[in-house]
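Check these lines:
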Amino acid sequence: MSLVSAASISLDHRNRRTAAIFALFAALMLGLGFASVPLYRMFCQVTGFGGTTQRVSEAQAATVQATGKTITVRFDANVERGFPWRFRPEQVKDTVTIGARDMAIYTARNLSDKPITGMATFNVEPEYVGKYFDKVQCFCFTEQTLQPGQEVRMPVLYYVDPAILDDKEARDVESITLSYTFHPIAGDTANGLDRTGSGS
């Protein structure tokens, strides 16, 4: 075999290997793109990043012991611009015992003449206490559909984790704000709204 042929084969082999590496890299980047949203959501739920609250089971909640300490929880309600619901808490604030389960009630009314489906996003302030705010039941776990003119009461069963008292940054917090914002379901034209929440 001539030196020219050997060099040509070697170059061709390197080119194929480089192309294979780039194809593998592109596939990995594509996979990470699809996984990024659920991974980010999981990260937020585990760490409380960005004020994300925690979701716990009845069994987990049953193991938590109430303390002698109390904290004030404030309730906030919002809707995306153009979303035709009236949404508000029945009680603006409550003083709760850390570790004890409590319930907040929000009300929502569909002000339009069409069925509307929405989903609530949520967070708490200060953001760094999100990992200590545990929800057992919440309307925010699922989509909510209201018929024209329908009004509903929506409960949130929650507690503040006693572990907050062991956190040097969080243990002196006197008040937590629980905030919800309702949005239309993206791309759901059946409810008469477009992706921006404006009426059709």
